[in-house]
Every structure is written in C-alpha cells, then in structure tokens.
C-alpha cells in the first residue's frame, strides 16, 4: 500500500509576527501508523523541500510518543526535509492521500490548484481521502465528478470554533473551518474540545484536532486493508 501525505509550505500566521506551519503530532502519529503497518509513505508539499513546523507543536506540553520517536528518527527527518513538489506528484501510484493539519493549510492548501486536482483525482477513482484538524480545509474547494463540493451531504469534522477560540486565533485565521465545512453542505460533527474524534463517510475520513491524528490515520488504514 502506498499513501501520499501532503504538508503545508506556509509559515506565516496571518498578519501577526508569529510563525505557523504543520503540527508535528499530526504528521508523526499518522506516519508511524502507516509505516509500522508496512505502508510506503511519500511526502509532498507545495514548495517541496522541508515544510515549516509550527513552533507551538514543538513545546514540551505538545510532545507525544510519536513526536519523541520522530525526533530520534533520522530516516523520517530526512524524508521530511526532502518532500517532493506537489505539482510533480503522479497520483496514479498511490492508494490514498492524507493531509496533516496545523494552521498553515488554511492559507496555502485550501486554494492550491494542484492539491485540489489531486483530491479530485483520488475521489473520482474511489480512493480514500483523509485530513485531520485544520487540514479538512483542503476539501473546501474540491468537487466530485458531478460538480458538487466533496463534503456536501457528508459527515465531516475538523478543528472546531470553540477550539479556535481556545487558542485565541479566531480573529487571525482567514476563516473558521467549522463554519466553512457547514457552508459547503457538510454535516459537521464534533466532540468536546481536544478529545480524539474521527469520522468516516464513505471514502472521506476527517479528524477534529491534534489528538485525533492517530485515530484518523487508523481509520484510513482500515479502509485500505478492507479494499485489498
């Protein structure tokens, strides 16, 4: 099995002087769910090379078993430093696509034409599409072969309005993910802030927050195994 993981290349948190990027846990936990199960993982980003890491995801209180493992994993770190450019990816060679979150995707991947085309290709081929935390934003402009938003009529989750308020970024982000998923016709669901929660609707799998990253990846893996 082969999974394409797509990470953000955006490192600026709106009009603030703070940095953003991808959230380490949301990359590391799924990465090991996949690789420990024998899945071949390829990493890509809009600009290629090393994607920016959200500095808040490297603080001591944000560390997990997966992030600590990643810190000692030279192979994984090399792969992260050498992501391929998104516009050079041939989707035919992959069985599924997975998007880790962090705030970065809100700015670059939501409207990235290459990302949208990849998602639409996987979707039209009946291959799983998964995203966690802020990354379900990448689905907002992707459409099904019928021309409807992919999320329309489907149960989805993602970083909630209350979680955005809790990190005090409601007025900084370009949009609130919960609101936008709902506006596109998605049946948005959530649990209490920071609790692990992932939902599957057909070939669409979404997770609510950083703590949901492993569960989201496991659901994707289960779908892949079931399709063999």
Automatic annotation (TrEMBL):
Residues 25-221 form the DJ-1/PfpI domain. SUPFAM superfamilies: Class I glutamine amidotransferase-like. GO terms for molecular function: glyoxalase III activity. Residues 55-65 have a biased composition (Polar residues). One of its GO terms (biological process) is methylglyoxal catabolic process to D-lactate via S-lactoyl-glutathione. Pfam families: DJ-1_PfpI (PF01965). Keywords: Glutamine amidotransferase, Lyase, Stress response. One of its GO terms (cellular component) is cytoplasm. Residues 45-72 are annotated as: Disordered. It comes from the Bacteria. This is Type 1 glutamine amidotransferase domain-containing protein. The lineage of its organism: Bacteria, Pseudomonadati, Pseudomonadota, Gammaproteobacteria, Alteromonadales.
């Amino acid at each position: 099995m082969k999974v394409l993981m797509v990470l953000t290349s955006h490192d600026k948190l709106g009009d603030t002087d703070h940095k953003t990027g991808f959230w380490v846990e949301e990359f590391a936990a799924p990465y090991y769910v996949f690789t420990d199960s024998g899945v071949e993982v390829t990493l890509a980003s809009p600009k290629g090379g090393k994607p920016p890491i959200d500095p808040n995801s490297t603080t001591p209180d944000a560390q997990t078993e997966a992030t600590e493992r990643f810190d000692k994993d030279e192979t994984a770190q090399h792969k992260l430093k050498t992501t391929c450019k998104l516009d050079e990816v041939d989707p035919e060679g992959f069985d599924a696509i997975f998007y880790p979150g962090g705030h970065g995707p809100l700015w670059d991947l939501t409207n990235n034409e290459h990302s949208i085309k990849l998602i639409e290709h996987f979707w039209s081929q009946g291959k799983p599409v998964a995203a966690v935390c802020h990354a379900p934003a990448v689905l907002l402009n992707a459409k099904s072969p019928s021309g409807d938003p992919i999320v329309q009529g489907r149960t989805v989750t993602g970083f909630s309005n209350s979680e955005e308020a809790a990190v005090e970024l409601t007025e900084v982000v370009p949009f609130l993910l919960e609101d936008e998923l709902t506006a596109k016709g998605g049946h948005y669901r959530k649990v209490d802030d920071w609790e692990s929660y992932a939902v599957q609707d057909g070939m669409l799998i979404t997770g609510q927050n950083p703590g949901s990253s492993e569960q989201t990846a496991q659901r994707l893996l289960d779908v892949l195994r079931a399709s063999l």
